Amino acid sequence: MKKALLFAVLGLAAASQASAQGLFKCTVDGKVTYQSMPCAKGGAAIDVPPPPTAAQVKAAQTRALEDRERADELAARNREMREKKAKEEAETARDVAASKPAPKQSCDSLRSRREELYGQRNENRRNSQLDAMSKTQTDIDKLETEYTKAACGPLD
Predict the structure, then answer these.
(1) What pLDDT sits at residue 3?
(2) Residue 133 in contact with residue 125, Cβ under 8 Å?
(3) What is the pLDDT of residues 78-129, one digit of tens each?
(4) Rg (CA), the chain
(5) C-alpha–C-alpha distance, residues 123 and 131, integer Å
């Protein structure tokens, strides 16, 4: 038992002595080297802080976990607020659109323009004019968006 205690004390003394030796930065002929022994000339001792204790590591891990949980909570709260705001804006836009019916003449002109564009797109498809067909389809999509915004009713 006494031998085990003696070895433990000697082991601790050796470990503390090893960490007390330090680290030295030596410059020789413009080259920098690091070593555990003092430099012959042109060197400086580097103060190396001791490694963190187990309690410090545990505390840092706990803080990191708490920070991560807080960040997740904030992200979820922000996402909920953005979704709520988007929903409110959509409802407001829908209410405004419902309160202002589009004039029948505007809806009729949009409907006839849509028929013309579909005819052009089909003609371009028959003639294998893919670029023109794609442009016409883009125009159709824009017109249908405008038609929906104008609250002209369902598309045929």
Answers:
(1) 54
(2) yes
(3) 999 999 999 999 888 887 766 665 567 788 888 888 889 889 988 888 888 8
(4) 38
(5) 12
Quick check: 39 and 26 in contact, CB under 8 A? yes
Rounded to 5°, the CA angle 92-95-99 comes to: 140
Residue-level pLDDT at 17? 45
| pTM of full prediction above 0.70 | no
